[in-house]
């Protein structure tokens, strides 16, 4: 059930899939302080470059999240634990553990979603759900009816307001959100017109950080869909984006980031937190 | 296709369709000659009705189409099940669906489902079986539903104009936005 | 009642229902002990699934109730007849949310958000509209959600007990919750 990530590592004290390392640490069968994280990172970079052109964006981003958490965890563990008498330090330690546990939980549900997809997409058994034959329908016991028009209007009002609630604009309370899907459409249109543009030019008119982030994410989606290619002459140099999608205006499967991105990166209102 | 597979495919389709299906339509779906389909349907009908071991379902030809029905041999048990099993009050879900239809008619099943946020297929069947709603038209290939005279009689109204205005019951918009 | 009549009566009743029915309700209508009913239902299930001559329909237990379904063996042929309004695939976000609800139910929207790390309002709306999840209760003023019988039917499970075990390295969830 655990999807093999394909990424295996060889350390002094551990050899095997990255997922297994994670599993051992979580079960306290291996001490995170004994893991040379720089070696893990080196191996991952080697793995990525060996599979050039073939590597999986989601795998890479997942690695980043996991590695960052491990780093956090390790930093916390390396604190002299015997002498923690500051309550804040202790809370910090617990927070790190909690973060790690959350990460594992998130990963587990992510994996389970693959299994669910298989179950939902498998051959279906359709339930028998046919109208009752008229001679049986006649047998239905007489309704006991006590519903007044006022009851009905209340029920209708309840149903209609439920429909509206998720769509209610909160624009006056929070900054409006940026849709990655919309930005993808805008970015594609510009690139189709110009052939190639620098990233700098693509975000020149962005008036918020959120818009820049959304356009960057939309480029990643377009890249995954092979609609664009990237060129970067020097490390940290200008990034040139080239349209490779032809005139095809077909559906781009941009996965919307739920609720869109907050315009201001620090706007905690839009992101669930504890 | 083997005989068993032809029979199986026919049973599968006929078990879940609501309306009688013509042998021609079945033949197209099965990619089999119509005669084979018709022959198999007749064999199935006879098999289910075998006097030594009659099934509780029967396959009947109605107006040139075929459909599974509950066998008349067991009508007494089915009748008892319907009378005793069904509650004589509409469920909350059914009432809410009815209210939505009353105010939004003519309305399609999909629209009702979207408003209520849940699948309403089985609740709609109940309301149809109770004669409280009926098909009143078609829009973009989807059936539209509305309330019936029976509904008016039940609620004691002489026409839909007597439905109370919805607006005063809707939550104040400012209240919602302030949440 | 003879065995054949019990079987026939059960088949006849199950022809007219629109949701899974409990053996208890069937027993009342048949005026037979529940054990006999349950035994017969199981025998029917096995009979229809006989590998040498599988039927096109199957009898399945879902959430403790029994209902006729078309057999998965013929899903392709049935698919040509039953056009379902909502066959579009669920997004990855919706699937992950569904997974969280399936394993943590009953669960509030806030709890799901916390696990997923993002706001899940729009995804929840999709899942509700598809009838895969429903409101199942209330806790501390917040609505709780759980999966539906439809979810079980769609995934082909008889009960939630059949959900595969979560990844082996998942820490004890209560530990996380307790903080």
Describe, in short, the structure shown.
With 274 residues, chain A is mainly α. Helices cover 49% and strands 7% of the residues of chain A. The two termini of chain A are 30 Å apart.
Written description of the protein model:
The complex is a heterotrimer, with one copy of chain A (274 residues) and two copies of chain B (179 residues). Chain A has 274 residues and is mostly helical. Chain A has helices at 18-26, 37-50, 57-78, 87-121, 134-137, 149-164, 180-194, 199-202, 209-224, and strands at residues 8-10, 15-17, 196-198, 228-232, 239-243. Chain A has nine helices and five strands. Chain A starts with 7 loop residues before the first strand and ends in a 31-residue tail after the last strand. Residues 163-176 and 262-274 of chain A have low confidence and may be disordered. Chain B is of the alpha+beta class and 179 residues long. Chain B has nine helices and five strands; from the N terminus they run αααββααβααββαα. Chain B has helices at residues 3-16, 23-30, 34-48, 75-85, 92-104, 109-116, 121-129, 149-155, 173-178; strands spanning 57-62, 65-70, 107-108, 133-139, 142-147. In chain B, the strands form two sheets. Chain B has a three-stranded antiparallel sheet with strand order 3-5-4. A two-stranded antiparallel sheet of chain B has the order 1-2. In chain B, a hairpin with a 2-residue loop joins strand 4 and strand 5 (142-147). The longest helix of chain B has 15 residues, at 34-48. Chains in contact: A-B, A-C, B-C. The interface between A and C is large, with 49 and 62 residues.
């Amino acid at each position: 059930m655990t999807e093999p990530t394909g990424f295996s590592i060889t350390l002094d004290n551990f050899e095997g899939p990255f997922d297994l390392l994670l599993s051992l640490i979580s079960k306290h069968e291996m001490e995170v302080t004994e893991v040379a994280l720089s070696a893990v990172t080196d191996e991952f970079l080697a793995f990525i470059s060996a599979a050039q052109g073939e590597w999986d964006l989601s795998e890479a981003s997942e690695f980043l999240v996991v590695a960052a958490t491990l780093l956090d965890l390790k930093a916390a563990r390396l604190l002299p634990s015997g002498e923690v008498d500051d309550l804040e330090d202790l809370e910090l330690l617990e927070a790190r553990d909690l973060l790690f546990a959350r990460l594992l939980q998130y990963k587990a549900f992510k994996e389970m979603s693959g299994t669910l997809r298989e179950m939902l997409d498998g051959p279906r058994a359709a339930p028998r759900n046919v109208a009752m034959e008229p001679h049986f329908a006649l047998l239905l016991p007489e309704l006991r009816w006590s519903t007044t028009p006022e009851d009905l209007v209340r029920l209708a009002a309840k149903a209609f307001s439920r429909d509206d609630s998720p769509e209610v604009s909160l624009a006056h309370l929070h900054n409006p959100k940026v849709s990655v899907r919309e930005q993808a459409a805008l970015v594609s249109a510009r690139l189709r017109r110009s052939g190639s543009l620098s990233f700098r030019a693509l975000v020149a008119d962005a008036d918020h950080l959120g818009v820049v982030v959304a356009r960057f994410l939309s480029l990643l989606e377009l890249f995954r869909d092979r609609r664009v290619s990237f060129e970067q002459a020097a490390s940290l140099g200008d990034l040139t984006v080239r349209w490779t999608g032809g005139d095809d205006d077909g559906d781009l499967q941009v996965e919307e980031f739920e609720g869109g991105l907050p315009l201001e990166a620090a706007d905690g209102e839009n992101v669930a937190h504890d | 296709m083997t005989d068993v597979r032809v029979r199986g495919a026919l049973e599968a389709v006929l078990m879940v369709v609501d309306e009688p299906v013509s042998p021609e339509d079945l033949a197209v779906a099965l990619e089999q000659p119509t005669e084979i389909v018709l022959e198999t349907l007749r064999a199935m009908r006879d098999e289910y009705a075998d006097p030594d071991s009659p099934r509780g379902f029967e396959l009947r030809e109605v107006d040139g189409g075929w459909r599974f029905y509950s066998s008349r041999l067991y009508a007494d048990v089915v009748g008892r099940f319907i009378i005793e099993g069904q509650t004589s009050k509409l469920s909350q879900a059914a009432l809410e669906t009815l209210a939505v239809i009353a105010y939004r008619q003519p309305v399609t099943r999909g629209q009702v489902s979207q408003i209520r946020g849940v699948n309403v297929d089985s609740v709609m069947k109940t309301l149809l079986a109770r004669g409280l709603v009926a098909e009143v038209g078609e829009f973009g290939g989807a059936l539209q539903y509305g309330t019936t005279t029976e509904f008016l009689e039940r609620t004691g109204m002489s026409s839909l104009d007597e439905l109370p205005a919805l607006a005063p019951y809707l939550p104040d918009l400012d209240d919602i936005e302030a949440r």
